[in-house]
């Protein structure tokens, strides 16, 4: 088991969070995920790592993979102005992640709390959420409540938004 994934599993175990892991081939897009046939296990999440136009604020936004996200209206809602996808360099710097592995679990690498986390309110009604454990070779399924517990333990503010 890779160190990155093990860090996530160890943290979940320490918090006594119930989760299920599905190992799979590396995936880079939501289309790749869909081909794996995982959706019956829960709601697959897409995670957008964004920045404001000045590059001063960084945002991680998690929502249902099927949601269309309008960056212009999201920027207004988050008070971030014009948003765009952050570079791979910024992703590595702030969350310690590679493209294709973006995940709320990456916030465990954000010791300075430089990234603001937003999650779609609709996910709170889902039975189970599927997110990568810092690598795109597995998907962890856990409840919204348990993801919130994980992030609370990291002292991350979980801000719900309507997308």
From TrEMBL:
What's the domain of life for this entry?
Answer: Bacteria
* Alphabetical list of CDD domains matching this protein: PrdX_deacylase
One GO MF annotation is:
aminoacyl-tRNA deacylase activity
Give one Pfam family, short name only.
tRNA_edit
- Please provide the record's keywords in A-Z order: Aminoacyl-tRNA synthetase, Ligase
Member of which family? Answer: Belongs to the PRORSD1 family.
Q: Which PANTHER family match?
A: PROLYL-TRNA SYNTHETASE ASSOCIATED DOMAIN-CONTAINING PROTEIN 1-RELATED, YBAK DOMAIN-CONTAINING PROTEIN
What protein name applies here?
A: Prolyl-tRNA synthetase associated domain-containing protein
Native species: Dorea phocaeensis
């Amino acid at each position: 088991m890779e160190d990155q994934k093990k860090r996530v599993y160890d943290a979940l175990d320490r918090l006594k969070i119930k989760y299920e892991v599905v190992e799979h081939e590396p995936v880079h897009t939501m289309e790749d995920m869909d081909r794996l046939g995982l959706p019956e296990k829960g709601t697959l999440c897409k995670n957008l790592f964004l920045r404001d136009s000045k590059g001063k604020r960084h945002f991680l936004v998690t929502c249902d993979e099927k949601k269309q996200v309008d960056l212009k209206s999201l920027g207004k809602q988050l008070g971030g102005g014009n948003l765009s996808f952050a570079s791979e360099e910024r992703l590595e710097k702030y969350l310690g992640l590679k493209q294709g592995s973006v995940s709320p679990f990456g916030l465990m690498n954000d010791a300075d709390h430089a990234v603001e986390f937003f999650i779609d309110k609709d996910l709170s009604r889902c039975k189970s959420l599927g997110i990568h454990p810092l690598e795109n070779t597995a998907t962890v399924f856990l409840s919204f409540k348990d993801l919130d517990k994980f992030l609370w333990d990291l002292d991350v503010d979980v801000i719900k938004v309507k997308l």
